[in-house]
Amino acid sequence: MPELPEVEITARLLDEALTGAEIESALAPGVNALKTFEPPLSALEGQKFTWVRRRGKLFVLELDGGMALVIHLMSAGRLQLFDTRASLRDRTSRLLVRLRDGRELRLREFGTKQRAWVKVIRMSEPEGSLEELGYDAWPDPPELLELLDEPRPLYALLRDQHVIAGIGRSWVDEILHTARLSPFKRGSDLEQDEANRLRTSIMRVLGGAIDTYTRELELPLPDKLPMPLTVHGRQGSPCPRCGTTLEAVFFEDYVVAYCPQCQTGGKLLKDRRLSRLLK
């Protein structure tokens, strides 16, 4: 799932490549992906890109006519720039933005669940998808003691885009491991030093991933980015810090990986489906 680091590096590279480029036409082969009808896609014709940026896990592609494309990749979307144009029969295409110079900005989605979406907005008007997001998780996240003061697990709070925007299933495991905090510790139970450690870990982990991508990636981007993960999805492997075997809690749609030595005081957490005793 593309999260803040993946969206950030993609936005940076696309900003360099697209600024000043003029739109010839915009099409939505995946009609379900288009979540607005006013302004219409046709209103983008003749406009030029002025800035491609990130907000949380969203792309905001601003245009010189005062409008913007807001794009959410969800779990399986990819936003890529191609030198050639796709066939309208390409079943992965959700949005095709064709440029005067012959290139094409293409939103594609892989897998069976079609969740990626696009909105055309006027920058002068409030837009719910942007306005409803919480504080951005990087580069300068807010102080967390009050922000996370809820009786919900840290794992859920950090992934709640209305609380703090940009973190998803992959990087939350890395952040909590770096902070030496249990995924199921309640936000309302955080001590000040733990909140400080967590904030530092967010900046370090997300910033480190972006630095890695900056060194290693360029256009054209691959369909699957080489995420520099050391904990997420690595259950059964040794902890990169202490060598203890990484464990996991399995949910229906995702897996929470953790180190019992570093994060839960040596306690093995039981499967959420079988136990309510997670702390």
Description:
This protein is of the alpha+beta class and 279 residues long. It is built from 7 helices and 12 strands. It has helices spanning 4-18, 128-131, 144-147, 154-159, 169-179, 192-216, 260-263, and strands spanning 23-27, 49-55, 58-63, 67-72, 77-82, 93-99, 104-109, 117-122, 135-136, 164-165, 247-250, 255-258. The chain has a 4-stranded antiparallel sheet with strand order 1-6-7-5, with no helix packed on it. Helix 1 crosses helix 6 (192-216) and helix 5 packs across helix 6.
Protein topology:
Elements: H1 4-18, E1 23-27, E2 49-55, E3 58-63, E4 67-72, E5 77-82, E6 93-99, E7 104-109, E8 117-122, H2 128-131, E9 135-136, H3 144-147, H4 154-159, E10 164-165, H5 169-179, H6 192-216, E11 247-250, E12 255-258, H7 260-263
Parallel strand pairs: 9-10
Antiparallel strand pairs: 1-6, 2-3, 3-4, 4-8, 5-7, 6-7, 11-12
Would you tell me the structural class of the helices and strands? alpha+beta
- Major beta sheet, specifics? 4 strands, antiparallel
**Share in β-strands:** 15-25%
DSSP summary, beta strand count: 12
For the largest beta sheet, what order do the strands appear in spatially?
Answer: 1-6-7-5
Encode the helix/strand succession as letters: HEEEEEEEEHEHHEHHEEH
Per DSSP, the total helix count is 7
Mean pLDDT: 93
Amino- and carboxy-terminal Cα gap: 26 Å
Low-confidence stretches: 275-279
Shape: elongated
- Based on CA atoms alone, the radius of gyration comes out at 20 Å
